[in-house]
Amino acid sequence: MFVFEKEQKVFDIGGVKVGGQPGENPPLIIPSLFQKGDPCIESRRARTFHKQMAGDQIKRLEEISELTGIPAIVAMVANSGDEMKNYIDFYAEATSMPFAIDMWNLDPRIEATKYVAEQGLMDRLLYNSVTVWSPDVPAEVEQIKGLGVKHVVTVVMDMIDQLPSGRMSSLDDMLAKLEPGGFDSIIVDTSVMNLPSTGICALSNYQLKEKYGLPAGAASANGSYMWQKAVWKENKEKWGESAFIGLDAGTHAATVALWGDFIFSGPMWGNEHVFPAVAAAHSMVSTMRYAETGKLTENESNPVYKLFPDFIKTLKGEA
Q1: Which of 153, 194, 200, 225 is the most exposed place for a label (fewest CB within 10 A)?
Q2: Looking at domain 10-315, which CATH architecture does it have?
Q3: Least confident window among 36-40, 71-75, 116-120, 161-165
Q4: Model confidence at 153: pLDDT above 90
Q5: How far apart are CA 215 and CA 171, in angstroms?
């Protein structure tokens, strides 16, 4: 259950590893910055933001990443190329972590990607993303290949067949279209459409790792934040203030426990509960792998080593 016969690919994105056998490497968490409603944003039109606040969030992310052993890439959200350029300049000075550009429209995304290339930052960029909804995937692949993009997220989905079979057929098609790009890394987002569909994504992740050995994951925050908007905000007095935090943490933890190599975790404020929950879930995966194989991962950056060193010594017969 926790060892695939298919060789599992491990990619290095700006010094961050993602992928591998379950429990082999820490999962990758990708939180958002400058998304709609982010208090750091002062004016999108004027392209101004609270740099101290954003910098403090990045610094805290680095701290909690080190504490748990879970690597992070920040997905910055913008509406225009000029706005994203402003964020890229700030981010490149604030941290050495990799980053993703999170822009729905292709033209500004390409404009921002050109700027990344001009700044010599392409090794740190996770291109987010080439999707099934792109009007012309081959043309987009040709464009970003020409710009030197190395690391890509692809998003798969079949709106008619929304079961794992549809996501797998979509992936087959997308991989054929991505192949001419010659990308160093391709990680696959299996499209959370709502909270219950996170389970479909989990099984899809298993199947694509079994067939292709690629890093698999999902934007599990899409499901939890849809629930927040649809249910929790309308019934705060019934659910209580902590209900969403628990649900959000549990959703991300389940995604990682069920074959997720990475997650898009939503706004940075959630890091305080998402990272501990994911660290706990991945520690369980590591020990389930040990119970199944008799071997612990050699990667001592894993949460189970960071958070439960005494238990590791017990398993190794050192205590």
Answers
A1: 194
A2: Alpha-Beta Barrel (3.20)
A3: 36-40
A4: yes
A5: 13
CA atoms within 13 A on the CB side of 279: 23
Where does the pLDDT of residue 238 fall: very low under 50, low under 70, confident under 90, or very high at 90 and above?
confident
Average pLDDT in the chain? 95
**Tokens (6 digits) for 304:** 């189970």
Question: Considering only 6-15, 182-191, 226-235, which range has the smallest mean pLDDT?
Answer: 226-235
Tell me which residue has tokens 């300049």: 89
Asked if 187 and 153 touch (Cβ cutoff 8 Å), the reply is: yes
In SS3 terms, the chain reads as CCCCCCCCCEEEECCEEEECCCCCCCCEEEEEECCCCCCCEEECCCCEECHHHHHHHHHHHHHHHHHHCCCECEEEECCCHHHHHHHHHHHHHHCCCCEEEECCCHHHHHHHHHHHHHCCCHHHEEEEEEECCCCCHHHHHHHHHHHCCCEEEEECCCCCCCCHHHHHHHHHHHHHHHHHHCCCEEEEECCCCCCCCHHHHHHHHHHHHHHHCCCEEECHHHHHHHHHHHHHHHHHHHHCCCHHHHHHHHHHHHHHHCCCCEEEEEEHHHHHHHHHHHHHHHHHHHHHHHHHHCCCCCCCCCHHHHHCHHHHHHHCCCC
Q: Which residue from 161, 191, 188 is spatially nearest to 175, judged by alpha carbons?
A: 188
Could you report the per-residue pLDDT of 252-282, keeping only the tens digit for each? 999 999 999 999 999 999 999 999 999 999 9
Q: How far is CA 138 from CA 22, 129, 191, 215, 267, in A?
A: 32, 13, 21, 22, 31
- What is the C-alpha to C-alpha distance for residues 108 and 115, in angstroms, rounded to an integer? 11
Supply the pLDDT for residue 319.
66
pTM: 0.96
